[in-house]
Amino acid sequence: MCPGLALHPLLTRYAAWLEMNQAQVIADREEDPGQVRAIQIVLRLERARPPGWHAALAAAASGCAALCLDPRSEPGGDWYAPVRAYCRGHIRKVTRRGRGAPWRAISDLPGLTVTSGGTQVRVLVPGLVSELSKPVAKLQVGGTDVPPDAGPVTVTCGGRAGGDSPVLVVHVPEALTMSTGKLMAQAGHVGMLTAALLAGSDQAALARWRAAGCPSRVLRTEPGAWADLGAAVSDPRPAWDRHRLVPVRDAGFTEVAPGTVTVIGQLTG
Question: Terminus-to-terminus CA distance in the chain, angstroms?
Fold first, then answer.
């Protein structure tokens, strides 16, 4: 079985999405509210032990990729149908926060937990937003902000990055102000898109990345370097084929204008 088969519907849609202008993005993003599907990303936010900013974003990237590459997301697995249905439409992600009993209440729901030092993030199997379970619906969407900390850290989901394993570097522009929760969703997008692109082009690299736990690292990128990356991804197809670059364009429901490139992933190694 080829890992990432559930992600295949995403590839065609991703290429088309990146080529849309702002008006097309706005028109495309509308859908039947009853059919909206999303991955819920939950940040553990204990008062006495706040999470790390870099680790939280990297955990979202690794966790979303690992969930879609999990054996349970392959044909015949319990997660295959919901992941496949999700990949046929908009890949929305919602970041929520939990602590204490509410955090523990979601620990048994289908999904994966990523831990890096004192930071924990749980990524739940996608489903209809209109059918959220009560423990998830009770978790607040707002209030996820934590200040950027000292520097990047490599995060894995149940693995250990080795010398020959690729690492996803998530570039976040310093000049674009977004909440931690919003950025975690963007990082989750780029992790998932990287998994899909690897599944469609390089199964050997995908196998190494998957075995290492989809290692990811987040960098705050200064304006000059961000402009260079933006120029490199102006045509998304060669950007991936030549440089392993993965831009994410936002639908613009919150915080940024429709079509904004929010983060750019770069697979190294």
Answer: 24
Nearest CA to 195 out of 88, 61, 86 is that of 61
Q: CA dist 221 to 49, 169, 172, 173, 177, Å?
A: 27, 11, 6, 5, 12
CA separation for the pair 224, 228 (Å, rounded): 6
Give the rounded distance of the alpha carbon of 70 from its chain centre: 15
φ, ψ dihedrals at 96, nearest 5°: -125, 170
Indicate the helix (H) or strand (E) that contains 117: none
Average pLDDT over residues 120-128: 98
Task: Report the alpha-carbon distance of residue 12 to residue 8 in Å, rounded.
Answer: 8
Q: Compute the distance between CA of residue 119 and CA of residue 109 in angstroms, rounded to an integer.
A: 19
Nearest to 42 by CA among 108, 103, 125, 105: 103
Burial class (CB in 10 A: 0-12, 13-18, 19+), 171: buried
> What is each CA distance from 165 to 113, 149, 205, in whole angstroms?
21, 26, 8
Which contacts (CB < 8 Å, 24+ apart) does range 104-113 have? Answer: 105/135, 105/138, 106/42, 106/135, 106/136, 106/139, 109/133, 109/135, 109/136, 110/78, 110/79, 111/67, 112/63, 112/66, 112/67, 112/70, 112/157, 112/158, 113/63
pLDDT tens by residue, 180-237: 999 999 999 999 999 999 999 999 999 999 999 999 999 999 999 999 999 998 876 7
